[in-house]
Design a protein that fits this description.
The protein has 285 residues and is α/β, with parallel strands linked by helices. The chain has two domains: 204 residues, Rossmann fold; 63 residues, N-terminal domain of TfIIb. 25% of the residues lie in helices and 32% in strands. The protein is built from eight helices and twelve strands. The chain is globular and about 60 Å long.
């Protein structure tokens, strides 16, 4: 099975380091709105990976249930938890499970699928099964947040290229390793809307020893209207949509972020407050 980061889980965090000051604050805002109280409620992160998002949420006081199918990614997350303060680690529960078919025996007020993880589901069957599983676990007043990348206006054969494209080079302070990342866009299937990038990490150790790690991926892309139709036909109601974590328009950003409730969603805690009290609760004037 693809998209499990079997060879490159150790490099995932440095690959996404630039998001730390962008998407984490976005998810924290929704956690504060949807999980008020002391102690706060528990949220669910699907494809939690190395804990890049879950761990800061736990550090902020939220209880997090995380599932992921990748054993190497969960191994990195567990190593982080072992080094975290005991009270933070106690707020996190992890399980190796498939986001296309899971049963946790309860529902949640907030379910998040950050940074394009949903696009790792490439078959129609697994996509619909995932949305069914999510809906089963979403409370009547809860919200789902899914983040996808916004594709070019027209994705065609020009996306693919046999040329290796340099992305970045970084030195990991803790290990002394120098990592150079590049990418080859192997091919695109425009009929099924799947791209096949290969991520390449060239690693130089302190000793001078060099290794190369290759990670082939398969990602399904969606145009905005396609995801909107898919969510609505799967029994969700789209409440908000954004083009980036600063809540800009979907026409302007690199992302497609959908905030949705169940189609029969009841008003949540904020919506039931009178307008003036709702503004005070949200911290607005």
């Amino acid at each position: 099975m693809k998209n499990l980061y079997l060879s490159s889980a150790e490099f995932y965090d440095i690959d996404t380091y630039h998001l730390a000051n962008h998407d984490i604050g976005f998810y924290l805002d929704y956690a504060r709105k949807m999980l008020p109280g002391e102690p706060p409620g528990e949220l669910l992160e699907l494809a939690c990976g190395t804990g890049r998002v879950s761990l800061p949420l736990a550090e902020a006081g939220f209880r997090v249930r995380g599932i992921d199918l990748s054993a190497p990614m969960l191994s990195v997350f567990k190593r982080k938890l072992s080094a975290a303060p005991r009270e933070v680690a106690a707020r996190v529960r992890l399980e190796q499970a498939d986001m296309a078919d899971f049963d946790l025996g309860r529902d949640f007020e907030l379910i998040i699928v950050p940074f394009r993880a949903f696009q790792a589901l490439t078959s129609e069957e697994r996509v619909r099964s995932a949305l069914l599983s999510i809906k089963r676990h979403l409370s009547p007043t809860g919200l789902l947040i899914i983040d996808l990348f916004r594709p070019r206006w027209r994705m065609d054969g020009s996306w693919a290229s046999a040329v290796e494209q340099f992305d970045w080079s970084k030195t990991i302070r803790e290990t002394g390793q120098t990592v150079v990342r590049s990418e080859i866009r192997r091919r695109i299937d425009t009929a099924r809307q799947i791209i096949y990038p290969e991520i390449i990490y060239r690693v130089e150790e302190r000793s001078g020893e060099r290794t190369t790690v290759c990670e082939p991926l398969e990602l399904r892309y969606y145009y905005q209207y396609q995801m909107e139709v898919l969510l609505i036909c799967s029994g969700f109601k789209i409440e908000e949509s954004f083009g980036y974590y600063d809540r800009r328009s979907t026409d302007e950003g690199s992302e497609l972020i959908f905030v949705a409730g169940r189609g029969d969603r009841e008003p949540g805690p904020l919506a039931r407050l009178p307008p003036r009290a709702r503004k005070r609760k949200e911290g607005t004037s």
